[in-house]
Amino acid sequence: MQILRPKHDRHGGIIMETKAKKSFVEIFMDGAFKGWNIGIKSMVTSLILANVIIYMLNASGLLSLIEVVFTPIMRIFGLPGAAIAVLIAGFLSKPGGAGAAAALYAQGILTAEHVTIVFPAVIIMGALVGQYVRIVVLSGVEAKRHGLIFALVIGVAFLSMFVMKILVGIM
Questions:
Q1: So what's the pLDDT on residue 79?
Q2: For 104, what's the count of Cα atoms within 13 Å in the CB-facing half-sphere?
């Protein structure tokens, strides 16, 4: 189907130009390619960054220090202290959290059960700062409630790890 659209020429006159209407498949494919490009640009960079950070922490020995410091807290959820690195990376970006979990799993620091326990928390609080600004601040929520909302999301993320620990134990 062709659509006639008015267009101005360089002399001020109006000419009619025809433009073919895109089919549903063409519109869908255009959107799919745009989504693919956005996903690749944001996710791949986050995954690479997370892997590099975990590698640097491990190579420098800081990951061992982090593990010692956070083991008492993470033990509540059945996780080693190094799992806090996954939560921190996930706090910044969901793909970063997934990349950190994958890197620690590949190095044998986390098991499949550990990743299963920590993953829902990464999804719940993933990219929290960016989402917080886009949703809470721009929506006009009273400033006195911002801290409560922030704490609530982190609390639910930690609750999800506890629930997953129970579910993994049952299975």
A1: 96
A2: 33
Q: Which CA distances in Å does 87 have to 70, 122, 128, 142?
A: 12, 6, 11, 28
Query: How far, in Å, CA of 154 to CA of 144, rounded?
Result: 17
Return the H-helix or E-strand segment holding 3.
Answer: strand 2-8
DSSP 82-96: THHHHHHHHHH-HHH
pLDDT above 70 as % of the chain: 88
The per-residue pLDDT for range 83-121, each reduced to its tens digit, is: 999 998 888 888 888 888 998 999 999 999 999 999 999
Local structure of 128: helix, strand or coil: helix
Alpha helices by DSSP H, listed for 13-93, are: 24-39, 45-60, 62-75, 83-92
- Compute the distance between CA of residue 101 and CA of residue 106 in angstroms, rounded to an integer: 8
